[in-house]
Amino acid sequence: MTLPNAISNFIRSLDVEKGASAHTIVAYNVALKQFVEFCNDVHQRSLDVRDFTEADIRPFPGWLHQKGISRKSIRLKLAAVRSLFKYLVRLGELERNPTQMIVSPKISSTLPSFLQQEEAVELATSFDPETNQGKRDKALCELLYGSGLRISEALQLNMGEIDFKRRTVRVLGKRSKERIVPITQSAADSIDVYLTVRKDFNPLPTEPALFLGTRGQRLTSVSAYRIVQKALRPITEAARKSPHVLRHSFATHLLDNGADLKAVSEMLGHASLSTTQIYTHISVERLKEAYKKAHPRNDDTKPGENSQ
After folding, report:
1. Which of 268, 236, 34 is nearest to 171 (CA)?
2. What is the pTM of this model?
3. For the stretch 60-83, what's the b/e string if a residue is b when 16 or more beta carbons lie within 10 angstroms of its beta carbon?
4. What angle do CA 300, 303, 308 make, to 5 degrees?
5. Average pLDDT for residues 71-92, to the nearest whole number?
């Protein structure tokens, strides 16, 4: 089997058999096309999948690095190649996975950007309450921050999937895993206000989407990113200003205020508690910073030394 045919079959299996998200399918498709480009560039020939050895694949991360691709992206692209060869082993096309011993490049453990709690309060007042778009944008941001949804999860929501009586929302997360997440009263109120003007976005009678764009169709992720970025720009100095910052802020603020780690993990839809652990690191760093600033005995003066 040629490499392009193997990739085509693998991508189709991700969609049909695995039910992978559209984002994952696109990312894997791009990564594997780059792998084909690498093979043509470095090996100067199209390899049959049965010809691949560990030595053939090992230069791939270095080749990506030379093209200016970040370590985090290289790890993701190498994961796509690993998954391809795992798939071929499962099919019986290969006896062993030649990527098995290839180590991914390490990435620095940078903490995610998040809002200060006072900035999150300010966010709620940064929308124009007189315009339909302002009402929609506030509802979207209140939901992202109040419930910690991924932007893809919020944009997938349809009419009727928010239970205003119980103040919960039914979310379809990664790998089509469903979960019920609480929503804040503020988010519920903002969504309720937006729903009174949703018809003014001129949706088709058959359009089920909760959040609509200006053409009356489901709001796109590009438009949602711009909405959040515009709202965050004047209120925070956080390095990033994306929808995911609101999700990070949700988790950080809950843990700062004593929420149970397992409960936060379940609300975020994480498959493992270890994924949620990064937010405990943020909270600990914030505690240390507060301690340094506030504790009367925590100064740089050494014993027996008078401060000037």
Report:
1. 268
2. 0.58
3. bbebbeeeeeeeebbebbbebbbb
4. 55
5. 91
Tens digits of residue pLDDT in 237-290: 877 888 999 998 998 888 888 888 888 888 898 877 766 766 665 555 555 555
pLDDT of residue 198 exceeding 90, the answer is: yes
Q: Does CATH place domain 3-91 in 1.10.150.130?
A: yes
- pLDDT given at position 272: 73
Q: Where are the domains of the chain?
A: 3-91, 117-293
Look at the domain 117-293 and name its fold.
hpI Integrase; Chain A (1.10.443)
Q: And the tokens for 3?
A: 């490499």
Name the residues annotated as catalytic. Answer: 150, 174, 244, 247, 270, 279
d(CA 300, CA 198): 58
